[in-house]
Design a protein that fits this description.
This protein is an alpha+beta fold and about 110 residues long. The chain has four helices and six strands, in the order βαβββββααα. It has a four-stranded mixed β-sheet with strand order 1-2-3-4, with no helix packed on it.
């Protein structure tokens, strides 16, 4: 997973060229998920690879993004953007204690 921080304050050319290069590189290297956090613009997008294309992951009804690749990796977007790190960590811990994360860890341990 890659995490990028960009702002619209960067020139349009630089940011679009940079993201295009990362997009092509990640797609050909099989990067399955990545996050783009535009800090100054207060935006966050999580993308996942499906059939050779990156699609944006939607939040659930509670505003949480849940990784499709790493079960139990949960991100509270609203809390993160608001700087409420205690809530971000609480949501992350809930994900790490979820049944799907437990199953994921057990599967990895058996391989």
């Amino acid at each position: 997973m890659h995490i990028f921080t960009l702002s619209s304050r960067y020139t349009f050319y630089f940011s679009t060229t940079f993201l295009y290069r990362i997009y092509i590189s990640d797609r050909s290297n099989g990067v399955k998920e990545y996050i783009v956090w535009q800090v100054l613009d207060q935006k966050l997008a999580w993308f996942y690879l499906e059939q050779g294309e990156y699609l944006e992951l939607a939040t659930d009804s509670n505003g949480i993004l849940r990784s499709l690749v790493f079960p139990g990796l949960w991100l509270g977007v609203t809390e993160l953007l608001a700087g409420n790190m205690q809530s971000v960590l609480t949501i992350l811990q809930s994900g790490l204690q979820s049944p799907e994360h437990t199953a994921f860890v057990q599967k990895l341990a058996s391989e």
